[in-house]
Amino acid sequence: MNELRVTVDTVRRSVDARLSAIVAERREQWSDLAPSRELLQTASDLLTGGKRMRAVLGAVALAYRADGESRLQLLSSPVAAHLGAALELYQASALVHDDVIDAALTRRGIPTAHHRHSQLHTERSWRGDPQAYGVSAAILLGDLLLSAAGMEMGAAARAAAVNDGARLASRDAFDAMTQEVALGQFLDVRSEVLPLPGPDQDPVSAGSAMLDDALAVVRRKAARYSVMHPLLIGALLAGARPNTPLYQGLATFGEEIGIAFQLRDDVLGVFGDPALTGKPAGDDLREGKRTALLAMTWRRSNEAGRDLLREVLARPKASAEAIARVVALIESCGAREAHEQEIVNHTRTGLGSLTHLGGEVSASTYRDLTAVAEMLTTRNS
């Protein structure tokens, strides 16, 4: 884990510097447009902090062959900085839009972009609807961040010491990632508005179908873009070829650890400490998110338990007492324990795939990937 800390700190320093430079460049570029300062300040605040794990994963894959000093040089190289900035900008873009969709008020303990601009509208007594203005500003901020992410990915591809085919493949992989997340987000939004199974439906088969749907959303909305895509894009920028054992091993590791990572996130959405997660506990229940944890609870509950779920899910004003009853149900019916086992299973499969990488990756890369898997799947924030 100490070696991973060196990797994380090295990547974080260079990516943080690049992100600050990007905002500064836009401020200079649009210095004659005073209102742009509001949007760029929100962007700056949103990009400050964060674990930078997507950037770290991209850099680890970029340096997959190297050890020692040459590895540290690659981790802090312009290619790694551009790639890391592209992944972090895209993450910020997705979060801004996700918060609009979820009508979330806080993110990492601070006001979300749409809420912040809504408050600004109110404070300055502007005309029109503050909420509508805030949503409009946030959508445009997300678009701005997405555009900046694409530009940084282009810069990373140009800076990489690979042939044009590899540059094109890395950019195609980045674009495929953004497209897949949009699809996954739609599947998530759609699932939340579908009716829950009725009393006449078999709860076991209904719960199994819910679980299949939940995992499909997990793969496309979060798992792959959180772990798999950053690894594959970084590897492509290092000259790795698709459809090789190395590429397939990284893909399997990334998808399986990404699923476990998101499943852990779903646990934190119900049981997490708000002081650590930065968002209120129980919000996933109030928003009606069709998670794997919910599917497992549905399959294991009696009719009274399923009636409770119908009462609370997708009810923004559900009381703390009602949320507490659902939390107790998840524990008592065995869903949380089964969910933890699902995390263990995906983590084990992901780590197992590393054995197929053989001598393709350096010892440092192998150790970092193993440590990252532990960090992502056992976290509490």
What does this structure look like?
With 381 residues, the chain is mainly α. Helices cover 76% and strands 1% of the residues. It has helices at 2-29, 36-47, 53-62, 68-75, 78-102, 113-123, 130-159, 164-193, 203-237, 245-271, 274-277, 283-286, 292-300, 303-312, 320-332, 335-353, 363-378, and strands spanning 106-107, 110-111. It has a two-stranded antiparallel ribbon with strand order 1-2. Strand 1 (106-107) and strand 2 (110-111) form a beta hairpin. Helix 16 runs antiparallel to helix 17 (363-378). It is globular. The relative contact order is 0.11.
Please give the number of β-strands.
2
Global morphology: globular
| End-to-end CA span | 18 Å
Q: Assign a percent range to the helix content.
A: over 70%
Number of helices, counting only DSSP H or I runs of 4 residues or more: 17
* Uncertain parts: none
**Class by SSE composition:** mainly alpha
**Helix/strand order:** HHHHHEEHHHHHHHHHHHH
Can you list the strand order of the major beta sheet? 1-2
As a whole number of angstroms, the C-alpha radius of gyration is: 21 Å
Q: On the 0-100 scale, what is the average pLDDT?
A: 94
Strand content: under 5%
Largest sheet: 2 strands, antiparallel
